[in-house]
Specification:
By secondary structure, this protein is of the alpha+beta class. The chain has 20 helices and seven strands. Helix 13 links the parallel strand 4 and strand 5. The longest helix has 21 residues.
Length: 444
């Protein structure tokens, strides 16, 4: 991704131009400032007001935050009477003027408010944080979901692939960015600087991230990649301190072993698919010997599902307390002797069990299958960290990106929710389904 360096530096220069000097608050409430910003015509006055809104929001108490989002949701919502009038006018006369008026009436005022705030230099990151605060409140205040839809709509445009800047993270990358890689790692915790160095410095390790020019020092998402021989079955081997470093030319497989979304406020804005495609393209150009692209992925919801499933079953090889022990202590206990049983349960969970929408229950499976990957293999004892045992009894999954079949698999999953699997995984899933049906007939 070195070829993007010049482009990134150029965009960063443009977006990091000196902004309006910070102004002291003028005593108006945050809602009065919002109304003033909507009404303002001048660029300088608009920047000053926008800065005051962001500054004021950062100082709000939890109660005042709720009141602010209530204001955005209710007071800056669509004027339905005006919308109805504009709809009637457009039905009678489909002139460009009436169409423009209809579009204006159909948009909540809060969208224009957010656009104007975003004109303030550096405001994009603050708005991402604002949405992060909003998301924490939606469960108790479901009406705030209307405001969140506007955030999603705007962020979908502001953070589209055309604006994202790919960068490879090196050990020589700026310290503030390396610190954020440690902080944001969400799959396999980075213990210290030495651990981070083992992941980004060796010739057979890579880390790639997407940045946005308006947030040049804060990654949006990053992926860690290992260049290996053969498809791996253990993350411990990938992360081992004293492993043998492989020359890239000796590797035939690129393993995506950790993908971390960094910004809670950008939840629902998809970057992972684009990042994986970008990394595949770059690795194909850089390391000609790489012919296989595969993940070593977690199953974050597996143990919760398995615990519930166990409570509904009888006469299994494993007791429910064995699963509970793994979930609470992070230790496998007697489960370490049940590798094949665990693999069958995981195949059942990934292939056979679906949500109300017909999609797999597992979010990581939905992500990779939706990108056009195939469920290639399931490994027991692949992640023996406390977190790996608590979440999935140490199991991990290979999703294989067959470059010749990605489009076929993507379309099959998108249209029919078809889970494409290897023969081995299909056999495991079929066996699990047969056992489950046999228990139902016996208990029935």
């Amino acid at each position: 991704m070195n070829r993007s360096g010049f482009f990134y530096d150029l965009l960063s220069t443009l977006f990091e131009r000196p902004g309006i000097a910070r102004v002291k608050g003028d005593g108006r409430s945050i809602t009065a400032l919002c109304e003033a910003l909507i009404a303002s015509q001048g660029e300088v006055s608009g920047h000053n007001i926008g800065q005051q809104i962001l500054s004021r929001f950062s100082e709000l108490s939890p109660e005042a935050e709720i009141a602010f989002f209530e204001y955005l949701t209710e007071e800056m919502d669509i004027d339905t009477d005006r919308l109805q009038a504009m709809t009637t006018a457009y039905q009678s006369d489909r002139s460009p003027e009436n169409f423009a008026s209809l579009l204006d009436a159909a948009e909540p005022r809060r969208q224009e408010l957010l656009r104007r705030i975003n004109r303030v230099p550096g405001a994009t990151g603050d708005l991402v944080k604002m949405r992060s605060s909003l998301l924490k409140l939606i469960k108790e205040h479901p009406s705030f979901g209307r405001t969140d839809l506007d955030f999603q709509h705007l962020f979908g445009s502001w953070f589209n692939r055309g604006f994202l800047v790919p960068r490879r993270i090196h050990w020589q990358s700026p310290a503030n960015i390396l610190e954020k890689i440690i902080k944001y790692e969400a799959v396999h915790a980075i213990d210290d600087w030495d651990d981070l160095r083992r992941r980004v410095e060796p010739a057979d390790r890579r880390c790639y991230a997407f940045f946005h020019p308006a947030m040049p020092d804060d990654p949006l998402i990053f992926v860690e990649v290992a260049l290996v021989r053969g498809i791996p079955n253990s993350v411990q081997a990938i992360l081992a301190e004293n492993r043998e470093i492989l020359s890239p030319e000796s590797a035939d497989t690129a393993v995506f072993y950790s993908i971390s979304n960094c910004q809670a406020g950008l939840r629902g804005v998809s970057f992972g698919n684009s990042l994986i495609k970008q990394v595949v393209e770059d690795l194909q150009a850089e390391v000609k010997s790489i012919t296989t692209f595969v993940t070593l992925s977690p199953m974050p919801g597996f143990n919760r599902w398995l615990s519930q499933s166990m409570s509904e079953q009888a006469n299994t090889d494993v007791a429910a307390e064995d699963i509970e022990l793994a979930m609470t202590s992070g230790e496998l206990g007697r489960l370490k002797d049940q590798a094949q049983w665990l693999r069958r349960q995981a195949a059942d969970y990934l292939v056979n069990r679906k949500g109300r929408n017909g999609m797999p229950l597992d979010p990581v499976a939905r992500f990779h299958l939706g990108n056009g990957a195939m469920l290639h293999d399931i490994h027991a004892g692949a992640d023996l960290s406390s977190n790996g045992v608590r979440q999935s009894s140490g199991l991990m999954v290979n999703y294989l990106y067959d470059l010749k079949k990605i489009s076929q698999f993507h379309e099959g999953f998108a249209e029919n929710h078809t889970v494409f699997t290897s023969r081995d995984v299909k056999s495991l899933a079929d066996t699990a389904a047969a056992h489950s049906n046999g228990r139902k007939r016996k208990n029935g």
